[in-house]
Design brief:
- There is one protein chain.
- This protein has 15 helices and eight strands.
- The protein is mainly alpha-helical and 362 residues long.
- The strands form three sheets. It has a three-stranded antiparallel sheet with strand order 1-2-3, covered by helices on one side. A three-stranded antiparallel sheet has the order 4-5-8.
- It is globular, with a radius of gyration of 27 Å.
Length: 362
């Protein structure tokens, strides 16, 4: 018998032997179970995990999923997934057997999400709903591909939500300038928003900037890292995608402003962050600046959209804009299609010309 009672504190523990993925024989002890039944249930699930058998609880399978996937993801990406799993999936599916989750269970869960309203009577956004469902699909797909689950019931049911983002908001140049004047009393805030608006960089990219990233002679700033606040610690990671690693040419006035700002930083070293704050600081300053200037409140990330809309308005191509902001050109075309001037009339006129040429030749 591998379940035992700890006579000192009255709890139960399990002692199991197993072979790891290299075939090495190992032993594991798990303590603190209130009842013998709980200890036996854990032992059963552990055995199913080591055997790669899908006949285990969803909660038990998540341990395998984390073990497989966490090393492949950035820590902040995993933490976002983990929060969604813990708050939206485990309460419903945690104790269900993985192989016994049915389409009707998924439908009932989806309907609960669709019916949810917060204290302001607001539902979950379409993008959030889609993200939650995508996470369940990903977990069950992993079970199908690698652990013998016969099919994925979440895929059969179909999706909820939408990948379409909320209505895109942005400032005109005039609105941004009004906002910038309102935060000019705090130099760090002013120069941070100047970089966000005139370079179109992401918040994490901004907060990771160091003096060594700037080449004022060439008039450029290099984007090669991103800042995150994880586990109450400042963490510097690689950027969001490979395309995000780029060198941006700054307008002359911004070069001069950033030189002025860095001269004001006492004792700053080449690898020190020049904006040693968190994203929440930027959010609070957005609130303050919008109240003071009277411009509409947008998200900090929407300043990036504002930069893109400015470039589109000035006639730059999707390819050129994509290179600057670290996107694929097809993403720029898709996401900002409504901002590009329509070419339909020009196309029709060209076709008219072609038709007339053919008639004249005939």
């Amino acid at each position: 018998m591998s379940t035992h009672k700890d006579e000192k504190n009255g709890t139960w523990y399990v002692m199991v032997r197993y072979h790891d993925w290299k075939g090495v024989k190992r032993q594991k002890c798990k303590r603190g179970f209130a009842t013998r039944r709980e200890a036996q249930e854990w032992e059963r699930n552990f055995q199913l995990q080591t055997d790669g058998d899908p006949d285990m609880t969803f909660e038990a399978f998540l341990e395998l999923y984390e073990h497989d996937m966490r090393p492949r993801l950035k820590e902040n990406t995993w933490l976002s997934k983990e929060h969604m799993i813990r708050t939206k999936l485990l309460p419903t599916f945690g104790k269900k057997m993985l192989s016994e989750i049915e389409t009707r269970d998924i439908i009932a869960w989806q309907n609960e999400l669709l019916a949810y309203r917060d204290e302001k009577k607001q539902p979950y956004s379409p993008t959030y709903l889609k993200g939650i469902h995508n996470q369940l699909v990903a977990i069950l797909n992993h079970a199908v591909r690698h652990y013998g689950l016969k099919s994925n019931p979440a895929s059969k049911v179909g999706y909820i939500g939408s990948k379409e983002a909320e209505e895109m908001q942005f400032w005109t140049k005039e609105e941004y300038q009004r906002f910038a004047e309102a935060v000019m009393d705090k130099p760090m805030s002013y120069y941070a928003f100047e970089m966000l608006y005139w370079c179109g960089i992401r918040e994490g990219e901004l907060l990771a900037l160091t003096p060594g990233d700037f080449d004022f002679k060439a008039g450029t700033v290099s984007i090669s890292k991103s800042y995150q606040r994880l586990h109450k610690e400042d963490v510097i990671t690689t950027p969001k995608t490979k395309k995000s690693i780029r060198t941006i040419r700054m307008p002359k006035f911004l070069c001069e402003e950033m030189q002025e700002y860095m001269k004001s930083l006492y004792g700053v070293k080449k690898k020190d962050r020049i904006f040693p704050v968190t994203k929440s600081y930027l959010y609070h300053e957005m609130d303050r600046g919008c109240r003071a200037s009277g411009v509409k409140r947008i998200r900090v990330h929407d300043i990036r959209h504002s930069h893109v809309s400015l470039l589109i308005d000035r006639g730059f191509s999707a390819v050129a804009i994509a290179d600057r902001v670290g996107h694929e050109s097809i993403d720029i075309t898709y996401r900002y299609a409504h901002l590009f001037p329509s070419k339909q009339a020009e196309m029709a006129n060209k076709l008219d010309d072609e038709r007339m040429v053919n008639l004249n030749v005939g």
